Amino acid sequence: MQAPMVIILGVTLAIQLFLVAMFGADRSIGPAQTDSALLAFDTEAVTSIEIRANDADQTLILTRTDDGWSLPDLGGFPADASRIDQLVDSLSDMNRPLPVSTSAGSQKRFKVTDDSFERRLSLRGDEGELASLFIGDSPGFRRRFVRVVGEDAVYDLRLASFDLSANPDDWIDTNRLQLDSAKLERIASDDWVLVKNADGWRLEGSDQAPDAAAVDDLLASLSSLGYRGVLGSEEKPEYGLAATELRLDLSLTDGGSRSYRIGRIQDTEDYALKEASDPYYYRLAAFDIGTLQDLSRATLLGQSQSVTDAATNQSPVALPDEPPADQQGKASAAVNPATETSKDVVPEAKTTLEPLPAHNALSGQDQARDDQAGDDQERDGMR
Asked: Based on the domain organization, do 148 and 207 belong to the same domain?
């Protein structure tokens, strides 16, 4: 009776293994997904987002307005709307996986407790809080342990640290200073003026055409001018704008204009920029400034600034005055010493080697042949 039972159990096990191989082979290793959403909220109902870092006394606030998203801590400076919308959509699309743990000890170990966490993210609407998460340690690349506030389960979810930054500068709209270079028709500084006409760009006060590469670099820098952060809407002495390093006035074909003041921020390698019609002060790195800080008439004409400075600072060579008559005689003697004779002067020994006459050279060759013949005869006698 046992043999048939063993056969039946063996066949059943084989069928189970076959089914696992057929339907489970293509499944990736990772947290199992379920059909329920991790967070239940309406994306259109979100009016603000708060991201708090536990290791810093700072809470980032992003606010939705009629014009898009903004940063209240930066005076309402526009935020990167596309990036914020992407974050909200990704949170809305997350499904609830099987938890990796539900114990209080694991919450502390994964840093998702009420008092110990990496980030706390809250979505708010007009009626209050819509959803809130604790984000903890990372189990792998672009992954984070997450716990929904008010729940015990800890999940392993796909989230990147950069998407959860609490630094306002990481969320600013970085395109505020960019413009279409084709609309530029006049660019002026304190030292030079470029004007665009039907024949192209020309430098006022110069008959020479500006260097095409230098003008192209200037247009590229102005059209894609970027910045690293926003300093606020109030000028401070450390921004260095009182001693402006560069001033640029731009005129556009559509009637618009821009006026830039750029100064070096105290004790840093960064720059501050203020546009006349913009209430904000921008922080730029040297990379953002690019070739703007080295602009001059010389560089716009394709000349090296160092060469131009050297030519400007070079003093004319002073010609010596005509020497007195007694010194003229000494100078003449120095130039032609053969004209001066003295009993104390010993003539130089002639060191030039005269070439030997041709017949002497031939005689030497004949003598060498005779010596060789004598040596041969002597060796024959010794034998």
From this structure: no
Residues 280 and 243 in one domain: yes
Whole-structure pTM value = 0.68
How many structural domains comprise the chain? 2
Q: Each residue of 189-233: pLDDT tens digit?
A: 999 999 999 999 999 999 999 999 999 999 999 999 999 999 999
Where do the DSSP E strands lie in 212-296? 229-232, 246-252, 257-264, 271-275, 281-284
Question: How many Å apart are CA 277 and CA 364, to the nearest integer?
Answer: 100
* Distance between CA atoms of residues 202 and 205, nearest Å: 9
* Burial environment of residue 201 by CB neighbours within 10 A (0 to 12, 13 to 18, 19 or more): buried
Return the closest-CA partner of residue 46 out of 64, 59, 60: 64
The segments of the chain whose pLDDT lies below 50 read 23-32, 307-312, 315-322, 324-325, 327-371, 373-374, 376-383
CATH number for 262: 2.60.40
d(CA 370, CA 381) in angstroms, rounded, equals: 17
